[in-house]
């Protein structure tokens, strides 16, 4: 029994860390622009395809990829997707900043569809096998079976999340981004380059999402052009659960969502006598989204923000 619990905890931590990397991108963009970037799930998908392409260019046969090639492909892919994020912001979102909040949201949906269609045309719509970026060995902890892939994903994700936290809270760049998030007009009066700060957000957010996509594809061994749809929505749910706009909230919400998802799917067949199985894990995730929106729209760590206060921030 203890071994099964330990195994499920590691499963939840692994999935939650991937959700957290994506949820951070949602919450950063919302925190600065008060906008939901629905194309962010496709940054997750692009990360996997970019890493696959980089591996193919570096060594040709991805089956024989070594640690050096994997590491180089990982960093190259996340940087590529980060710059793609900047390009998307410049072309699809920046011209719409002075418009209503609906316009950039619709633009992000268009970008999302365009990216999926583009990958389907270039790489094909069918799923493709993805190599593991970590050694696949299994060992026991307190009777539970844990893989080195899970350990590698957890280490990589926590390093990235810790780096983001330090960037936002301890660096000059983080202070500037937080100033822009608080009030763009005031930041401009203080001489802050607002456009550069927003570009940084659209670089870091997609970079983290791409890292999540690589870790996800490495964990499950497959990538598809539509893989960002459901996973992106789950990460968005996690960001809302933790409090959209709150970086610690995005992390907390991701691990809670993953815990409910993994624990629920493990218990559902037992509690229902086999009537409900693991295929209902997505239902649990979106049920949480509905409940949070009904009873605590600000999330666990978020601040209650009214439409009037948001208008005030935009104007003053």
Task: Produce a short descriptive summary.
The protein has 316 residues and is mainly alpha-helical. It has helices at residues 2-33, 40-59, 67-93, 102-123, 148-170, 172-182, 184-189, 194-220, 227-242, 247-271, 281-295, 307-315, and strands at residues 128-129, 138-141, 144-147, 222-223.
Question: Could you describe the 3D structure shown?
Answer:
- This protein is mainly alpha-helical and 316 residues long.
- 74% of the residues lie in helices and 4% in strands.
- It has 12 helices and 4 strands.
- The strands form 2 sheets. It has a two-stranded antiparallel ribbon.
- α5 runs antiparallel to α8 (194-220), α6 crosses α8 (194-220) and α9 (227-242) crosses α10 (247-271).
- It is globular, with a radius of gyration of 20 Å.
- It starts with a helix and ends with a helix.
- Residues 306-316 have low confidence and may be disordered.
Which key phrases capture this entry?
mainly alpha, two-stranded antiparallel sheet, globular, 316 residues, disordered C terminus
How are the strands ordered across the major sheet?
1-4
Q: What is the CA-atom radius of gyration, in angstroms? A: 20 Å
Mean pLDDT: 86
Distance between the termini: 58 Å
Question: Any idea what the shape is?
Answer: globular
